[in-house]
Design goal:
two-stranded antiparallel sheet; 19% strand; 9 strands; elongated; 41% helix
Length: 347
């Protein structure tokens, strides 16, 4: 049996030295050293040997296995190094060649507008607040003076996850959260920008869009009035869109403000002369605003006999279109680099 062990070992050494392939080398490891390998089978058959022969044969087999294993490891390291050298040679980079130009990304125009608005209002003493996009019916409607069954809900009641949770239809919910969070009931100056969601049935609106809301609440003796709202919006609109624009306030209805107004600006395309963009009126509607309704103050912990304020809100896509002269809102959603990279040059 010792002669058999020697023959198997010599055969294994010969095959290992001859091979130049890692897969074949692994097959040889299994052939000689695996559970059913030739050297392993000899060990399994030692039960038929006499007690005197077993330690001699066992020692010979183990020594042969160690020699074969050492040779396989040495050969494996050699072949891996050869393969690595070959790969490095084939993948050599010629640094004298011109580099491949990487397409540079660009900040989205809506994000540009958000940053500009936040910078402006922070400079005016406002805080930037954030809130959840998955909102409760309580904060999305009820705390904004829109109880269950209110007809003004019809245009917004959509995208419910459960009977209580829905995707927020307006960033006004953050106004309610901010008032409740302010447990000391001190004055508030805040804005919130973010995504909102509504079911839309026509091609001129998107089911997901962005809004920015502003809220001011102050002591009643400071007499926060429509004049303050108008002055704030003039600074806002003129800084963002153009200094030569005028504002027009039209009475309207919002459940969370009283009185409420739709705010128009001079058509930036025709300067108020009348054109297809403004439907020959010379004005373009840009936002909604008003004096905070006493019910909203009361439901969110503020005494309407001691506090008053104003609020406003507008769509960010609309502002981006006005600011950059974008003619089709769908451009804002396509993520086309050819479109987006224009705004680096504009800025």
């Amino acid at each position: 049996m010792q002669a058999q062990i020697k023959t198997i070992k010599e055969k294994a050494i010969h095959e290992i030295e001859k091979t130049e392939d890692l897969k074949i080398l692994n097959d040889l490891r299994v052939k000689y050293l695996g559970k059913k390998g030739e050297l392993t089978l000899i060990l399994r058959g030692m039960g038929a040997l006499s007690p005197e022969e077993r330690p001699i044969i066992g020692s010979a087999v183990n020594k042969a296995k160690e020699e074969v294993e050492a040779l396989i490891i040495e050969k494996e390291e050699k072949l891996e190094q050869q393969e690595l050298n070959k790969k490095l040679q084939e993948e050599t980079i010629d640094i004298t060649l011109p580099s491949t130009k990487i397409v540079r990304g660009s900040k989205h125009p809506v994000n540009r507008v958000i940053e500009e608005i936040e910078d402006l209002f922070v400079s005016m003493g406002y805080d930037v607040e954030v809130g959840p996009e998955l909102e409760t019916d309580e904060f999305c409607f009820e705390r904004l003076n829109l109880p269950k069954g209110h007809p003004a809900r019809d245009m917004q009641d959509s995208f419910y996850i459960t009977n209580e949770y829905l995707l927020r239809t307006q960033t006004s919910s953050v106004q309610a959260r901010t008032m409740l969070k302010n447990t000391e009931k001190t004055p508030i100056r805040m804005i919130c920008a973010g995504k909102t969601y509504r079911r839309e049935d026509d091609a001129t609106h998107s089911h997901q869009f962005s809004q920015v809301e502003g809220l001011v609440v102050d002591y009643k003796e400071r007499n926060v009035s429509l004049a303050d709202l108008k002055g704030t919006l003039e600074v806002f609109v003129k800084r963002l869109i153009g200094e030569n624009l005028d504002l027009r306030f039209r009475p309207s209805y919002f459940p969370f403000t009283e009185p409420s107004y739709e705010v128009d600006v001079t058509c930036f395309k025709c300067s108020g002369k009348g054109c297809p963009l403004c439907k020959q009126t010379g004005w373009i509607e840009i936002l909604g605003a008003g004096i905070v309704h006493p019910n909203v103050l009361r439901m969110n912990g503020y005494d309407p006999d001691k506090f008053s304020g104003f609020a406003f809100g507008t769509g960010l896509e609309r502002l981006a279109m006005f600011k950059y002269g974008i003619t089709d809102m769908r451009y804002l959603y396509t993520n086309d680099v050819r479109f987006l990279k224009q705004f680096d040059r504009k800025d």
